[in-house]
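Run log, item B.
One chain of 801 residues. Sequence copied directly from the ordering sheet:
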Amino acid sequence: MLIRLIFCVTGFLSCHNIFAQADSGSVTLTVLNTNKQPLSAATVSLIEAGVNGQTNMGGEFRQAGLLTGTYTLVIGHTGYLAITRSITIQAGSNKFGFTLQIDTTTLEGVTVTGYTPAQAVRLIAYHATAVDAKQYHNTTTDIGTVLNRVSGARLREKGGVGSDYDFSLNGFSGKRIKFFIDGIPVEQIGSSFQINAIPVNFAERIEIYKGVVPVWLGADALGGAVNIVTDQKMRNFADVSYAYGSFNTHRSYINTGYTAKNGFALRLNAFQNYSDNNYKVTLDAADIRTGRYIRDTTIRRFHDQYHNETAIAQIGFVGTTWADEALWGITVGKYYKEIQTGATQDQAFGAWHEKGNILTPSFKYRKKDFLVQGLSVSINANYNLGTISNIDTVHARFGWLNDSITYRGKGGEYWYSFYKYKNNNANVSATGAYTINEHHQLALNNTYTRFNRKGKNIASPSAADDIPQANNKNIVGLSYQYQLPQKWDLSVFGKYFAQHSHTELIDINYARDPDTLYINRTVKKAAVGHGIATGYFITPQLQVKASYEKTVRLPDSEELFGDVVYRDKNWDLRPEKSNNINAGVQLTLPVKEDRIQFNIAGTYRKVSDFIYETFNALENKIISQNLLKVSSAGMEAEIRYTYRDIFVIGGNATYQDIRDKHPHRTDFITDPPLPNPTFNERIPNIPYLYTNADALLLLKNVLQNEDRLSVGYNFLYVHAFYLYWAIDGAPETKRTIPDQFSHDLHMVYTLKNGRYNIGVECRNIADAKLYDNFSLQKPSRSFTVKLRYFFNNKHAKSIQK
């Protein structure tokens, strides 16, 4: 009898719960402005339910446990007209979208709008900023140039289009800075994806994280990260452009997509770059036949052609009940690159070149409220099957005067090689984020990357071709976030790093005939990092930020095994370990129709086993080495003034001081230890003071309605810095990279509210000698014109200047 009673009571309660759940539902509201951009901090009220709240950074508000029925909904935001609507909640999940109109009757001198996605990045706890890439879509610039104008950032290129580059944030550069496209590591996609070759139209916005990096990016970055975010909101659109410029430079771009009502989606993104890079350089040259030496002669580069072609096709579904985004993709491409010089311009090459291709299948999945309310899941996976060939099979010597001597027999300009190899890059990243309520969120990420280079010197095979070069990394990150909307943001996180590398080291014993030994080496490394980041609004216009991180950067594959061309291998590199501190203040002052923004931030990093690049003059290559202790302190400041939507002017300055802090020498072991001659000296070959400035004038309805004309100016200054240690050599013979002054001017004219566009740009107006690296001169004055057509049947009016 008791058992029957228990079953009856249990059955009654179960049925009651089932019917109760059937009569309840959840609601997700999305609030946008007229430019289809999310509005954060919009107030939301469901009158009959007594529910009040605010939208989050993505313009969303969620509420579960509502009884089915009709409710009165009120949405408001300062500077916008409030709306009142009746909505019906049904059992299960309910989604609604609303657009707020700007209130043109707001008090004179006060204009408050919602945050765009780019602006919202500045509000999070991390020391981060974002660039709205859409404002550059009609210009001829690339993503690398845009990044070079960001406060605290510096892009150093070794030449023109397609040249190798080094990007730094607050003084930390190289492999410490990680690049992503929608959260996918760029280095895993393929060799055509160079930041200075990707057109800016590829991005909707560019997020820059300085120092502490969020766990969802899954990176062992030590100095920061850059995430290029593409536009996923457009449904049926076409974006086509073509640019032609000096040095026979051609750039083309196509981005188009189709989305059916049932969510079926097709997307194609393709771009092409070509340049002869035959700009003029000034250097010392010699006739290789007669030995006649000519100082400070001006000649054209003659073996520096570069071209790449890349296409990304995706097919899948978006906006369905089972996936917000589920896309299968394939990236295909190829590139060709002539090698004009080594790490300096002391030697010229006339036949050495490199070529490669990309074949990268990929999968992307993203879903909010996955299985349960509040759980968001994203998965990214790709595998690069591409091949690279480094070809140096012309047995000749070339000079800067475009003269040459051909030799008999087999050989090359640098080394006799037709080295064909695959890097076999793979990446799998999975992130789960659970929103407990509007204040609390947990996130877990696991990222696995695999590198396995296999190659053979077809021209001159040897046993060294079979040496394994494998490097696997796995990074796990866990974070907790607390948010008090528009007031306080706090994140606490931990990371676990693991690396497994394998190779063979060659040991030649000249005492035995000689005898060559191949020694198997396998290294396993593991480390733990943690940190905290917080941001607090003292007033709605004034925010302060601070963050701390103890982190690790594992040696990169190219640092361990070299890159076949410019970089030599160093298997003995140790992981970098660092304590990072960031602090900053952001101030926005609306004054009548004006707006002034001011940011200032400071950074401090204490690093052990710092990995830095040195120049090997014997082989004309660079090699990575460890310094035991390094400190880095820096400041950056930015100010920007906006008058209505007519005029914008701004500038930023960065100072960084990176010094060797190990007091004793490590190359000689003595008792007592010898003092380190470079102790407390600035690390060479790193710029430490630079500034940017820009101005933009916007004119509407110039010749007809819905047209716009913009004229802009950019300025860059980089203070001189030493190539080698400052204590080495006499002052008059020390090698330096001199002061750099660069001036650029651009003009854009748009028709039909942004559908037809023409842009003209002049870079390096003063035709100055510009260097990012010693003796590697950058392009002289250049002109470019760009034609662009854009059509989007849903968001055409949101296209900016």
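Observations after the first pass:
- Helices lie at 2-22, 117-121, 143-147, 557-561.
- Confidence is low (pLDDT under 50) at residues 1-22, 104-114, 795-801.
Flagged for discussion on Thursday.
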